From TrEMBL:
Signal peptide range in chain numbering: none
UniProt cross-references to Gene3D superfamilies, sorted A to Z: P-loop containing nucleotide triphosphate hydrolases
Name of this chain's protein: Iron-sulfur cluster carrier protein
Function statement: Binds and transfers iron-sulfur (Fe-S) clusters to target apoproteins. Can hydrolyze ATP.
Residues involved in ATP binding: 40-47
GO function terms (MF aspect): 4 iron, 4 sulfur cluster binding; ATP binding; ATP hydrolysis activity; ATP-dependent FeS chaperone activity; metal ion binding
Pfam families assigned to the protein according to its UniProt record, in alphabetical order: ParA
Any single GO BP term: iron-sulfur cluster assembly
Subunit structure: Homodimer.
CDD domains: Mrp_NBP35
Species the sequence originates in: Gemmatirosa kalamazoonensis
Length: 284
């Protein structure tokens, strides 16, 4: 829990202590590790990276679930080919959300409960309450890893998520352009302020938009550079069709890059890749 940058408790001018904002933080009973995928700005392909990263990790033999916490623009139902998700969503008698299965991954999205095209016009406290209920109120199966897709930026959602769930790390996605890299630094700084380890930086759409922004951010922050994903217009088509690239075109340059990034993320969390036998938890 953060101690210096974000104090655990503060005091009103009158002397009454505030409620500890971290007092409700929990570790999910059936999930061994939780990582967040974030970005400083929109349009860098964060959700596409999160989906393909989760699938590539699952291909390593890791039991992975996906939580789409992008409350303002939940795109994972489209990226995973989940149609009519609102009609299919259900809850247990204990009022826990039951994940749907998408390409073998247990999956939950804010899109399950928001009408198509309906804007989210909520104030900060409403967002914080929704994120907390959403993050801790899912009937997950036994998972090795939960991948959480955050909205871009450094607002209420990542802070509320960190206060609700103990996070084992964060991956920050950027593009080569300087404006994206500057915002990626802010996102990484937020995770550090929350004392969430930054597992590394991913540079997406390398090529026609330049190269090197992601590595520069990693060097500046002294965190790992996880890799470059080359620009590939077919990745967009794959996502629109609900057929992620690592599944439909596993030998493409983009998919191979994502597979490499997934292995580096797995290794940072304690899993070792064993050729022909997926990943093995070296911390067990």
């Amino acid at each position: 829990m953060p101690s210096s940058a974000l104090p655990l408790a503060s005091v009103h001018p009158g002397g009454a202590p505030r409620r500890d904002p971290w007092a409700g933080q929990v570790r999910l009973a059936r999930v061994r590790r939780v990582i967040a995928v974030g970005a400083g700005k929109g349009g860098v392909g964060k959700s596409t990276v999160a989906v393909n990263l989760a699938l590539a990790l699952a291909a390593e033999g890791i039991r992975v679930g996906l939580l789409d916490a992008d409350i303002y623009g939940p795109s994972m139902p489209i990226l995973l080919g989940i149609t009519a998700c609102m009609a299919r969503a259900r809850v247990t008698p204990e009022r826990h959300i039951v994940p749907l299965l998408a390409h073998g991954l247990p999956f939950v999205s804010f899109g399950f409960f928001l009408g198509a095209g309906a804007p989210v016009v909520w104030r900060g406290p409403m967002v914080a309450k929704a994120v907390r209920q959403f993050a801790t109120g899912v009937a997950w199966p036994e998972l090795d890893l939960l991948v959480v897709d955050l909205p871009p930026g450094t607002g209420d959602v990542p802070l509320s998520l960190a206060q609700a769930l103990a996070l084992d790390g964060a991956v920050v996605v950027t593009q080569p352009a300087r404006v994206a890299a500057v915002e990626a630094e802010k996102a990484a700084a937020l995770f550090r302020a929350l004392e969430v380890p930054v597992l590394g930086i991913v540079e997406n759409m390398t090529g026609p938009f330049g190269r090197g922004g992601g590595r520069a951010v990693a060097d500046t922050l002294e965190v790992p550079f996880l890799g470059e994903i080359p620009f590939d217009s077919a990745v967009v088509s794959d996502g629109d069709a609900g057929t992620p690239t690592v599944l439909t075109r596993p030998q493409s340059a983009a998919a191979l890059a994502l597979q490499t990034i997934a292995r580096r993320v797995a290794e940072s969390l304690g899993w070792q890749h064993i050729d022909g036998d997926g990943a093995r938890d070296s911390s067990a």
